[in-house]
Design a protein that fits this description.
There is one protein chain. Helix content is 2%, strand content 36%. It is built from 1 helix and 15 strands, in the order ββαβββββββββββββ. Strands 1, 2, 5, 7, 8, 9, 10, 12, 13, 14 and 15 form an 11-stranded mixed sheet that branches. It is globular and about 45 Å long. The relative contact order is 0.26.
């Protein structure tokens, strides 16, 4: 595995328009979240992003809000962002009814999830995956663009999205978040302005700003 300090990632999806919910920003809920576990303080979500798909109607949902199928991102194939090895797989939690949050614990907070080691001390967590959709096992070696699972609504979530974070250890919570960048995407502007005031700016080796809207091109393997 290549060793580097700031991972350069491919898109976790094969194209589409996505909101970088609570992405890196000074006022991001992810950046300010900390976990006290067994006498230690962790901040695994410092640079995390909640990826929410935006459909042709300019919204994350269509035809209502009561079913997971109403979310454009529900069932979207989730891809390996870099070559690596699977170090953790959990696939046991039911998908939530939208807007209904289950009792959240340290065990179920990420819902169904995968951890992928991409370099020494660099791990990517894919959280809130659809139950029984995970296609890999611990020890599997995967390549950039391989389908790992389907986007779901399990764990600490009220609507279908993918929580993606890079950390220094193979643990959802008992790790420290580290920055990453995406190789290329088109920045479409702040979510609050989309689509009325849409821009179109190519960004290379960059991280989307918090709650920004981006367009990914289809991954070429």
């Amino acid at each position: 595995m290549t060793q580097y300090s700031v991972p350069i990632l491919s898109p976790p999806f094969s194209g589409g328009i996505w909101l970088a919910g609570d992405g890196p920003a000074n006022n991001s809920n992810h950046r300010r979240s900390i976990f006290a576990i067994d006498g230690h303080i962790y901040s695994p979500e410092r640079f995390a992003i909640d990826w929410v798909k935006v459909g042709p109607n300019g919204d994350s949902r269509h035809d209502g809000t009561t079913k997971n199928e109403n979310w454009w991102g529900w069932g979207e194939p989730v891809l390996a962002v870099v070559d690596g090895e699977i170090t953790e797989v959990v696939d046991e939690f039911p998908d939530n009814t939208p807007h209904v949050l289950p009792t959240v614990t340290l065990d179920n907070i990420a819902g169904n999830h995968i951890i992928l080691q991409i370099a020494q001390n660099r791990f990517v967590t894919y959280a809130h995956l659809q139950r029984r959709s995970i296609k890999v096992r611990v020890g599997d070696h995967v390549h950039r663009g391989d389908v790992l699972a389907l986007l779901g609504n399990s764990g600490n979530t009220t609507g279908a999205h993918l929580h993606l974070q890079v950390t220094d250890r193979s643990s959802v919570l008992q790790s420290q978040g580290v920055p990453c960048v995406f190789a290329d995407f088109t920045y479409l502007g702040p979510g609050a302005d989309y689509p009325e005031k849409q821009v179109s700016v190519p960004w290379l080796n960059s991280i989307p700003p918090g709650n920004g809207v981006v367009k990914f091109e289809a991954v070429k393997k």
